[in-house]
Design goal:
single chain, 817 residues, alpha+beta, D-Amino Acid Oxidase, Chain A, domain 2, Elongation Factor Tu (Ef-tu), domain 3, 10-stranded mixed beta sheet, 6-stranded mixed beta sheet, 28% strand, disordered N terminus, binds flavin-adenine dinucleotide, binds (6S)-5,6,7,8-tetrahydrofolate, FAD-dep_OxRdtase
Length: 817
């Protein structure tokens, strides 16, 4: 497409929507040299009537997600540099204050302060007096403390949109308002342009930055856009005496009262109040009135005072001075929610050249635009954005029923204290493995991931834990945890356990070009004889880790790939020539991991094939039968024990489980869940992609250099790795730590200090039951084993020590038997 337009010509981009996201994207694209950018907007500029047109613009950067925090940080920096026509910056760093009125919230603010420290956001938990100094209108009897972030504040969304529009226009971008996109044209699976009420616009790339109209634009392109527009109430009070004569729009920090789902900002002599406390009020994006037909603007619905009444009482309780005021004006403003609260970014798998920049807050707008512009112009964003990747939702998770249920839930829970393992309640169960009935009988405590019901531990194993001495846990780390997990870990190390590996993503790569594709797309040498399994990495062009894979060569032209995120399929599909076929076979198949020193005693009698160490060595695969069930057996284990992953089709899964279960009774087999699984892999030092390493890290930094074969010929990322190696030692490493106090635990995302100074953050962590202490992996500068560090967990310091890897079984005696 691009080539047809001649060498050097800038690709033609059409951006749908001139809200803050569309304007920022045009700016970021043109800043990177793409000049043929047309932004089409159905409403009138400068305030076209989408969510941006009335956003109160509060920016709190700290988020559980590092990616969102970095996007917010960039937005704040950029808007701080931009000037509005009145000469003032587009960001006003009045600071942020989140107050606690309950002990649970106060504890959570300490956790949040840890997140802020991990992601490099300045902030501190302050006492009630300091909260009152920052916000004198607060009721002194109500506030237990607060989290103060001096760099947060107010984004001026419309001036910021305008400033970015102007700089984009100066570099050649066109902005056409009162132009409604009505269709997306495509040929051969690629976009070729858009149709509007003012004519057609050819394009090589179309970006939907249409805010809550995203599903409407998506439908034109045949792409699901899993977001739900919801109305959210915002009101402004009548003037307050206490603010009379205020010279500036705002001087006090933006304020959150999350125990009551409220936030506040000043509007010179008034207070603006936003509420998430009311019922979810979904809006159908297909029937939203057009600009000229809307009473105010399309994103603004009439204020429903009765919905606001409880919030008003809560606001008055927090800020008693409000009693002398009332709601002067208010509205129900519409914006987007997704099933997991994260934006929807990236290029569609079905329609190439069709990109989404949807469900983005003002807070993250410039950061999102930068990431997407990098992605479009350079092929990758410099930030790890996998948590925002639109491919993360599978078919069932894109169904309207699912999107409505989950997205409304996100609205309700937006300010709730949510444990990192907490699964949403509905709609469940959604995806289940063939073993689900047996797991339920064993009292599985199911958590959910990727729509799958995943046993975390089994209550049936709780009695086994009675003989174990386990240190007591704090309430937070004891949530979604059970001593049964310790018993399951122990049984895996001492006897044998069955693990449901069904949710592990499986891709089938077949055809004459299969080997060539995997050789070019991944780092290890997979040109080995059928029967070999290879641990290999997917890198991007900059050498960042997109995934770690196992590639099992089942036949000359047939590989089975053990993968991580849905994006892995996209990466391979993009790189695949016509003579390769790639299918995601996860849904129709299943897998049991049988691991432990007695695994061979259990499995060998069930098959006529030789499963001895000589018969099927480590990282080897073969087809065999377990009883009646044809299986593909792969001798590898993420838990560091002898055993196999046994794959079969979904219809035979239950039979496979039952056969193994029955045969295992005399060996004391247990069913074991992810809680034990995670503990065991941490002891063994096996990294979890997405948590321990991402596209922001190279294999050498992540300790995965052993999976890179520089001598095998060219592969994606090789050049970049060479260039980086020439620059010397990596400045940071994924480092194993053990906690000094045997009773201490951390869970991940906590800040790590070396010599008392912030030095990095914990990626994943868990109690190592074999080691008898907590293991934590962390990104840190290179440190010698034995170096003392400390981690901060809920505001408390806990001592830890840099450990030598692997922590468990360095001689491999548990595996090579
Ligand atoms: P929009 O601003 O909605 O822009 C999309 C544009 O696409 C619209 O202008 C629309 O007209 C155009 N469009 C749609 N369809 C077509 C078509 N077919 N053809 C041409 N153009 C089309 N965020 C924060 O970070 N902090 C806050 O404090 C905050 N408070 C909020 C309070 C309220 C009451 C509301 C409603 C939202 C709030 N938000 C806040 C969220 C924030 O406003 C939005 O997330 C953000 O403005 C979305 O920007 P956007 O550019 O993606 O979408
Ligand atoms: N099983 C299968 N595929 C997978 C995983 C799995 N793909 C995704 C993810 N999990 C990959 N992660 C790992 C991590 C470590 C190992 C296997 C998969 C592993 N590593 C050994 C080591 O580091 O010593 C062996 C490496 C080697 O010999 O090259 O076993 O769980 N099917």
């Amino acid at each position: 497409m691009t080539a047809a337009r001649g060498r050097g010509a800038s690709p033609r981009v059409v951006v749908v929507g001139a809200g803050i996201v569309g304007c920022s994207l045009a700016d970021e694209l043109t800043a990177r040299g793409w000049t043929d950018v047309t932004v089409l907007e159905q409403g009138p500029l400068p305030a076209p009537g989408g969510s941006t047109s009335h956003a109160p613009g509060l920016v709190f950067r700290t988020n559980t997600s590092k990616c969102l925090t970095e996007m917010a940080r960039y937005t704040v920096e950029k808007l701080g540099r931009l000037r509005a026509p009145d000469g003032r910056p587009c960001f006003d760093a009045v600071g942020g204050l989140e107050v606690a009125t309950t002990p649970a919230r106060l504890a959570d603010l300490h956790r949040k302060a840890g997140l802020a420290a991990s992601w490099g956001v300045e902030g501190e938990v302050v006492g009630p007096e300091e909260c009152l100094e920052l916000w004198p209108l607060l009721d002194p009897d109500r506030v237990l403390g607060g989290f103060h972030t001096p760099g947060d504040g107010l984004a001026r969304a419309l001036p910021a949109s305008r400033a970015q529009r102007e700089s984009a226009a100066a570099r050649g971008a066109r902005f056409l308002d009162r132009t409604t996109v009505t269709g997306i044209e495509q040929r051969g699976g690629r976009v070729t342009g858009v149709v509007t009420d003012k004519g057609a616009f050819p394009a090589d790339h179309v970006v939907s930055a249409a805010g809550f109209w995203g599903p409407v634009i998506g439908r034109m392109a045949g792409v699901d856009v899993p977001l739900l527009p919801l109305a959210h109430q915002y009101a402004r009070t009548t003037p307050l005496d206490a603010l009379a004569g205020a010279a500036r729009e705002a001087t006090r920090p933006v304020l959150r009262h999350q125990d009551r789902d409220l936030y506040f900002r000043e509007h010179t002599d008034r207070i603006g109040i936003g509420s998430y406390a009311h019922r979810p009020m979904p809006v159908d994006p297909f029937t939203v009135p057009r600009y000229d037909d809307a009473p105010v603007m399309p994103s603004s619905y009439p204020f429903t005072a009765h919905d606001f009444a409880p919030s008003w009482r809560d606001a008055e309780a927090l800020l008693p001075a409000l009693a002398a005021t009332r709601v002067d004006d208010g509205f129900n403003g519409v914006f987007s929610f997704t099933p997991d609260g994260m934006p929807l970014l990236g290029e569609s798998r079905e329609t190439r050249g069709f990109w989404l920049a949807e469900a983005v807050w003002v807070t993250h707008s410039a950061g999102v635009a930068k990431a997407l512009a990098e992605w479009m112009t350079e092929g990758r964003p410099s930030l790890d954005v996998h948590a925002c990747d639109l491919t993360r939702f599978e078919a069932a998770q894109r169904s309207p029923a699912y999107v409505e249920e989950r997205s409304a839930r996100q609205f309700v829970e937006v300010y709730d204290i949510i444990h990192p393992l907490q699964p949403p309640e509905r709609p469940r169960p959604l995806r289940v493995s063939p073993f689900h009935a047996r797991q339920s009988q064993l009292g599985a405590h199911f958590l959910e991931g990727g729509g799958w019901e995943r046993p975390h531990w089994y209550e049936a194993n709780a009695p086994l834990a009675a003989s174990l001495t386990l240190p007591p846990r704090d309430a937070w780390s004891a949530t979604h945890w059970s001593p049964a997990a310790a018993a399951e870990a122990r049984a895996t190390r001492e006897r044998v356990a069955l693990y449901d590996m069904t949710p592990l993503r499986r891709l089938e790569v077949t055809g004459p070009g299969a080997l060539g594709l995997l050789q070019r797309a991944t780092t290890n040498n997979v040109a080995r004889k059928p029967g070999a399994v290879t641990y290999t990495l997917l890198l991007d062009e900059a050498g960042g880790i997109l995934s770690d894979l196992t590639a099992a060569r089942l036949a000359d032209q047939h590989f089975q790939i053990g993968a991580n995120s849905p994006a892995d399929l996209d990466v391979l599909l993009r790189a695949a020539p016509d003579d390769v076929r790639i299918r995601d076979i996860t849904a129709g198949t299943c897998c049991v991991g049988v691991w432990g020193p007695l695994a061979r005693d259990l499995v060998q009698p069930l098959t006529r094939d030789d499963l001895s160490h000589q018969g099927l060595g480590y990282f080897r695969t073969r087809r065999t039968h377990i009883g009646e069930v044809p299986v593909t057996a792969m001798r590898l284990s993420y838990v560091g024990e002898l055993g196999w992953e046994l794959y079969t089709t979904a219809d035979l899964g239950l039979r496979l489980w039952d056969t193994l279960w029955e045969a295992g009774q005399r060996y004391g087999v247990v069913a074991a869940g992810r809680s034990a699984f995670d503990s065991l892999r941490l002891e063994k030092g096996y990294r979890a992609w997405g948590r321990d390493m991402t596209s922001e890290h190279t294999p050498y930094e992540a300790g995965l250099g052993f999976a890179v074969r520089m001598d095998k010929g060219d592969f994606t990322g090789r050049e970049a790795l060479l260039a980086r190696a020439a620059r010397g030692e990596p400045a940071r490493r994924l480092t194993a730590l053990t906690l000094d106090d045997r009773a201490a635990v951390v869970l991940g995302h906590e800040p790590v200090y070396v010599g008392g100074r912030p030095a990095g953050h914990v990626t994943s962590a868990g109690y190592g039951y074999t080691l008898g202490r907590c293991v934590a992996y962390a990104w840190l500068p290179p440190l010698a084993p034995g170096t003392p560090v400390h981690i901060v967990y809920f505001g408390e310091k806990t001592a830890a020590t840099v450990a030598e890897e692997p922590l468990f079984d360095p001689q491999m005696t548990h595996i090579l038997t």
